[in-house]
Amino acid sequence: MLKLFNTQSREKELVHSHNSHIKMYTCGPTIYDFAHIGNFRTYVFEDLLRRAIQHFGFKIEQAMNITDIDDKTIRGALARNIPLKEYTEPFKTAFFEDLDALNIQRAEHYPAATDYIPEMIQMIEQLLEKGYAYKSPNGSIYFSIRQFSTYGRLSRLKLADLKVNASGDNQADEYDKDNISDFVLWKAFDPERDGKIFWESPFGKGRPGWHIECSAMANKILGETIDIHCGGVDNMFPHHENEIAQSECCSGQRFVYQWVHVEHLLVDHKKMSKSLGNFYTLRDLLQKGYSGSEVRYLLLSTHYRTQLNFTFAGLDAARSSLQRIEDLIERLRSVKESKSSTASSERAKTRFDAALADDLNISSALAALFDFLRELNVLADQDKLGVEEAREALKLFEEWDKILGVLPLKKKEDEIPVELTRLLEEREKARKEKNFKQSDAMRDAILSQGYVIEDTPKGARLKKL
Ligand code: AMP
Ligand code: ZN
Q: Which protein residue has the closest C-alpha to ligand 1 atom 11?
């Protein structure tokens, strides 16, 4: 029953699937720096969509690309005079740490552009063979948008009405609608721009353009046709338009059934972006004492097709909403007696599901949750809440949390004290520095507080004795 708004048709449509399987491609980060929370608005939404898809009984296969080749990553590596991978790797690690802090489920695939160069080259060769691409005098390969009659369909551009720069000298990956042009598939090597970073290809040394990266990885991992393709609205043109052109000209098949675009996170009513300098990273906010859950709640709680203006007051409101839920959860857990009351989990559940199924209408879904919370609080105030209903309600909050991934359901006694987490970090540092006497003393201090250290493939963690 899940419906999504398809940018292509501008209508809500039942989600497209094949034997209840959904293939979803989501444009991922360019790892030249830490992602900002604008980027994470898009990724948190995609996580909500992923969880909703599973909630409604579908199996999902999601791929999110990691862009490690583009002007910005190359510029960064050259500025520090280190290999590209050495430059991008810490930002990739940071990205996954941020995903964890925001409780974003892992996708099935995270392909990095550097691992798919042969697939990109193969696609470009096909486009050349079929006459959709040409080599320009500067040695780069361009896609000729005039050759693809439906170019502009997604963003509703009418090529005939536009002055198109077909000279094929636009090397930029991003440009605006007033400056529409043939776009680059393979950028010929330019030592001044690229230092020593290039790949060999049948068209000479160089590197792929940004758009072909997504087409090639989507095709290799998910196949010629994808059910859902997501990204922020700024990706619609030219990036997604170009992905469609490349993929459909190669395969002759429809590339995507449903296009889903997330509106921007704004600051002072302007898009949050690196270039405007008006951004916060997740780390900035964690350092100010906010939690990953509070940031997730803020990003999640506005419908994805509405712009969201970031403010600290908004973040504080997220904190108090979560606190209200936490207080109720504690209250539900403390109910011990049977009573003959009438809290309606079933009605709340139906309302929540209906809201979610309607293009992920999160505001209505959260309204259902908070109405239920109020109803339970009133019953508890009147001492009419029975243990069976409290248990039912807790079960429902747990089910909701599988979708929202943000509810404060952890029992207080399950939470590990911050001092112990810090002690564990120090113990790890001491071990790395081979200061075993100190690390053993720290282990003993942790043990004396009733916790043991467990070594796992993801690192050491604490467990209550
Ligand atoms: P980028 O690394 O700039 O390619 O962006 C990665 C993803 O974040 C893309 O899907 C963008 O559309 C999205 N994005 C970038 N800025 C924002 C913003 N201010 N609000 C929401 N999504 C954004
Ligand atoms: Zn993409």
A: 232
Q: Is the CB of 27 under 6 A from ligand 1?
A: yes
In which band, very low, low, confident or very high, does the pLDDT at 458 lie, cut at 50, 70 and 90? low
Q: Structure tokens of 370?
A: 């908070």
What's the gap in Å between 37 CA and the centre of ligand 1?
9
DSSP per-residue string spanning 361-405: -HHHHHHHHHHHHHHHHHHHHTT---HHHHHHHHHHHHHHHHHHS
Residue 42 confidence (pLDDT) above 90: yes
Q: Where are the domain boundaries for CATH 1.10.730.10 in the chain?
A: 267-413
Residues having C-beta closer than 5 Å to ion ligand 2: 27, 214
DSSP string computed for 113-136: GGG-HHHHHHHHHHHHHTTSEEE-
Instruction: Report whether residue 271 contacts ligand 1, using a CB cutoff of 6 Å.
Output: yes
Question: Which amino acid residue places its CA nearest to atom 6 of ligand 1?
Answer: 29
**pLDDT tens sequence across 131-158:** 999 999 889 999 999 899 999 999 988 7
Ranges of CATH 3.40.50.620 domains, the chain: 18-262
**How many whole angstroms from 110 Cα to the centroid of ligand 1?**
17
- Class of domain 18-262 as given by CATH: alpha beta
328 lines ligand 1 (CB under 6 A): no
Does a cis peptide bond (omega within 30 degrees of 0) precede residue 238?
Answer: yes
Q: Which residues contact 378 (CB under 8 A, 6 or more apart)?
A: none
| pTM (global) more than 0.85 | yes
pLDDT (tens digit per residue) in 247-263: 999 999 999 999 999 99
Q: What's the confidence (pLDDT) of residue 133? A: 96
Q: Which ligand is nearest to the CA of 31?
A: 1
Fold of the CATH domain 267-413:
Isoleucyl-tRNA Synthetase; Domain 1 (1.10.730)
- Per-residue model confidence as pLDDT tens digits over 260-285: 999 999 998 899 998 899 999 999 99
Mean pLDDT of the chain: 93
Q: Is the pLDDT of residue 459 over 80?
A: no
Give, using CA atoms, the residue closest to atom 17 of ligand 1.
38
Q: What percent of the chain has pLDDT over 90?
A: 78
